């Protein structure tokens, strides 16, 4: 299954420029298998930023486990990757403990404040979508800090002060403005300019003296964030949820017209959930349950692929790709119909992943043509997803030398979240309220259409696409084979699916599985998104001939994956060559 080459590891490519990395990506896509990750005997980590990967590796080298490493990386990413993640966000993690053979799913997703309700974004009788994305009313109660501390106290071995130290150093040292930072700051310029603190920290005056996108290479240091992290390292999460930080956060939000209160922060709680479990061709899988829809989509697509192709998915064959795409469309229809916070809405996950239900979904499957949208989701309200190519979320994957594993995905939602920074804290707050269906049936930022199950209610968690996932080995089901996840909004489940299927079905090495050109469909808009050079023109023509509306888009998503080779026990990491991350490990 793994074909480690002796040629330069793609990991090194992570340190090269974007153009060169995309060149490497094109080479891989064109069929070159010369690039393969190097093997490690010890632990292995893949994250979206080299500094976070190094922080995780430092924990492993101190004798820490996968949880210590993952949380060190998560805190560091909150500093070095402010466009994608932060202490003001939330997320999910799967923690696999090899000794007890148990996987826990930690839900530290944001919660709607007590004052939230279905009409909170309606002004003068009309929905104002900007209120759910830009500024203080878009902020949901953050869960990241609670989640990271919960993971550490549940399963970590090192002291929080040790685990947080690399993040503190990074905040003092500063983060360098990259082309990606510039792109995202340019898109969020109005939002950032509207907040005094965000302007001061993340923008720089241009020649005319107006706050603007900083020049390439500008050092963004965050001394206040460093001080906040120092406080957390000393006092733990209580200051964030009940102490001084809580008061600063709530008052900043309220001054700017938001509704998060100190009581909302005090009421925040992490939920340890049972993971969603399934299997694919004998590989056991653990993934994130609702309020993630990503894990459900993953299991439904794999289930449908297995039903329709009992002898396996064939790489690059239009028939197999058609099945994958049609399965995705059906899974996204179910997402729109059924998924919400399970503490508020009954989400029948067992039934939705049962083969009886999958067979029912496939009742109108036609191998020759794409099923018309109206047959999959009657009265669908199609609209273009504006953010298809972006990825303002971060995923990290770790396997330690013992075989413990962590898959963690976390986000402040859109780039720079709501653009609200609580003064004096350096904490950039999320705009996760946009992941609710603020108007059921109407598309959100990502063009996603969601239903009543995901309507806004006090204390509720919005549906997410984030899908941290662990695939276990067939031979020894106590060992993780693949630990993965991705950034990229609704493209997350399709990115994770393709990485996993390339590994399980197509015999790819991990580097190629992560790098390979992607196909994405989310039912609405009814288009099949294709990365440049993902498949050869004849294959794409065959898909178009079946009635799929092909749309070529810039490369999207950001997958981070690590694996253990069942034959040798050696471990590999792969960081998405589309972005600026790195995979590292212990020899
Ligand atoms: O939880 C979710 O599904 C979204 N808030 C993730 C946002 C994201 O990945 C942004 N990238 N396009």
Task: Set down the secondary structure blueprint.
Elements: H1 10-13, H2 18-29, E1 44-47, H3 50-61, H4 66-80, E2 90-97, E3 102-108, E4 122-123, E5 126-127, H5 144-155, H6 160-173, E6 175-176, H7 179-187, H8 189-193, H9 196-202, E7 204-205, E8 211-212, E9 219-220, H10 223-235, H11 238-241, H12 244-255, H13 262-266, E10 271-273, E11 276-280, E12 283-287, H14 294-308, H15 318-338, H16 349-352, H17 355-361, H18 373-376, E13 393-399, E14 405-411, E15 420-422, E16 427-429, E17 469-472, E18 480-487, H19 492-504, H20 510-515, E19 519-520, E20 528-530, H21 537-545, E21 550-552, E22 558-564, E23 571-575, E24 582-585
Parallel strand pairs: 20-21
Antiparallel strand pairs: 1-13, 1-24, 2-3, 2-14, 3-10, 4-5, 6-9, 7-8, 11-12, 12-17, 13-14, 15-16, 17-18, 18-22, 19-20, 22-23
The site of 6-diazenyl-5-OXO-L-norleucine has 15 residues, from loops.
Describe this structure in words.
This protein is an alpha+beta fold and 587 residues long. Helix content is 35%, strand content 17%. It has 21 helices and 24 strands. The strands form 7 sheets. A 7-stranded antiparallel β-sheet has the order 10-3-2-14-13-1-24. Strand 17 and strand 18 form a beta hairpin. Helix 6 (160-173) runs antiparallel to helix 10. It is globular, with a radius of gyration of 22 Å.
Q: Can you tag this structure with a few keywords?
A:
6-stranded antiparallel β-sheet, 587 residues, binds 6-diazenyl-5-OXO-L-norleucine, 21 helices, 7-stranded antiparallel β-sheet, globular
